[in-house]
Specification:
heterodimer, A: 503 residues, alpha+beta, Periplasmic binding protein-like II, nine-stranded antiparallel beta sheet, five-stranded antiparallel beta sheet, 20 helices, elongated, B: 285 residues, MetI-like fold, flat, disordered C terminus
Amino acid sequence: MAKLIKGVFLGVLNVVFIWTALFLLGHQAYWVLLLLVLGAALVNFIFISEKGYPYRYLLPASFFMILLVVYPIVYTVYVSVTNYGTGNILSKEQAVTQLQERRILDAEAGNYTYTAYRDGAGELWFLFTSPQGELLLGHAGRLEPVQEGDERFSQLAQFTELTRADLVRATNELSALSFAFDETWQLQMRNINYFGVYRPQYEYIRERDELIDLESGTVYRPVLGYFEAPDGTRLTPGFREVIGLNNFRRLFTNPQVTGPFVRVFIWTVQWALLSVGCTFAVGLFLAILLNDPYLRLRKFYRSVLILPYAVPAFISALIWRGLFHTELGIINQVLRATIGSGVPWLQDPVWAKVALVILNLWLGFPYMMLVCLGALQSIDHEMYEAAVVDGASSWQQFYHITLPLLMVSVAPLLIASFSFNFNNFSVIYLLTRGRPPMVGAQTPAGHTDILISYTYRLAFESGRGVDYGLASAVTLVIFLITGAITFINFRFTGTLEEVRKNV
Amino acid sequence: MYRRHSLFGSLWRHAVLLLFVVFALFPILWVISASFNPANTLVGQRLIPGNPSLANYREVFTSEQYPIALWIKNSIVIGLITSTLVVIMTSFAAYAFSRFRFRGRRTGLFASLLIQVFPQMLAAVSIYLLVLSIGRIFPALGINTHAGLIMVYLGGAMGVNAWLMKGYFDTIPNSLEESAMIDGASPFQAFYLIILPLARPILAVVFLLQFIGTYSELILASVLISSTEKYTLAVGLQLFIHDQYASRWGVFAAASVLGALPIVILFLFLQKHLVAGLTSGAVKG
């Protein structure tokens, strides 16, 4: 039976693999296809070979982790060394195509006068007269020579000729039209009186990877995502290209970016430490109180104290913003009634930070309480019974039994909580938006901005469009910082593994 | 560790706990009060509204521009499916990490923890592009589908949750499974029939944590979901109060109460699973 289920499961997986492979083959995505084949081979090996047994349990979670966490990280690393962002969204191929389609007026070809007609179906017909006096019939993007008295020429008499007022009204429609002489030369509207001959402005020489301005002869070569002339003139649009460490250079040497960086960094560390410290202290304290079998109303307390966690954080942050409201909020109303004056919660740098820590304590202590309760409940009661027999005090029991065993399962969560708060964008953004702003800073930095909200504003709200490249570079810096802290912490609690082996 | 309390001992405990109860409850009660206040503003609000009415709630249910009730349903469905799948996948992974010794075990544990450090918010661009390409192969998992969003959430199944569960599995003695295997049980049967029932408290904790996390998730949902009728509550409510929450305080409060209610109910319902002590009892029995 178990073998049958395994067989069916593996069969379904392989059908999905083959389906995906065929699709990738059809789209010539050979690198992805190679990865898929390797992955499929690995999966089949894990399920067929006995050696792969433990990995079967890891497969589902690992698959989604690799696809939706690891891959986006790798992609972010790639983007961080590119100039991806407004102005450099297109691939080089697309940018070249756009530039090749750009046309300029050929003044020497002279002006073409015209008469426009509308047929019964509302479609436009044109009779052009070239500077040399030749007649051309234009319709649906095509041109053909006609003579007076032709069948096609006399046909025009049945259509309605557009008056000058009609032409003015239809300007937009007319100026969007073009009539092709051949593949590159076109007839387009110059003004209400004339059409002119337009020809391509640039020619792309694929072998030398150069773009030549056909009029001036200037040669443009690709430099860091733009076609650039020897005198430094750039053509837009630019294209997406690897530009090496330029984003990182900007980050560390551009005063606009680095200036407030240090202050923001210090607050970020303070913020993460305060958040983890306060929530864990309160959470553990409450968990120990609530794990006490002799305490009355335990269930009541537990249900009520968990409630802040049940309210989605983004709602809570907005609710607290109402409570902290300087003029109308209930907290300041109470303060005015008791001590005579309110507090500028969201206007003063220090009070704004206090407000954030209070909000985050409210949001976070139930989580720590839940986690500690779960861990406390998994501690074997026999240990305490033995300790009591040996005459250990409550404090000794807590310090030598509860805390070490609790840390086995909770320590990694504290680390995770630290990095979570290090990057707790939504609380900061929803309560203070990083405000109040730093006086004298050239960038939109605020006193309560943490690294991630600061960079978010730099990258996405700088008023100059999006800059995925810089944003990704900053993300990597944040990742490195939090990764390093995590690593140090992990080595520090590396006793974790030893402790676990003894359990 | 715990003893019967003296009178003073029980007094300070209750005093401290009551203090925290007030801290925890006040904002919630204040919003509930605002939701019944027809004035729809922060000005002059009292804890017991003068002339309570259901006008704000009616607005929540009848507004055609903002179908808040539908958003709540979307969030619940997405949250339930995600949490269920995460608990299943995580318990498998945690069991392997806890009980098997294999090559790459330590690396895997370390990687799954370290990877959580990466701020997913800024990876939103890559995730969006990835889901876009997946949607070309499997349209049901593409942009603006709930299935695609759930798939993205499953990426976080490994990591913190697996650690929490592994820590719990580690504290369950091996002797139970060993005796079962002597009786002829396969490792999978030992996992399914012995470990999982004993681990119910941690499964409930992981389920709840995941459900709350999914329910409140804002950034990925707003990047991946684009049509009004598919919004989750987090995305929809955010837009509803955008720049106008001062003048929509009452309706916002009513929506908040309704949005928080499903989770609060779930919490109270699953509380008993959190009460444990199963492990030591099982060994004794």
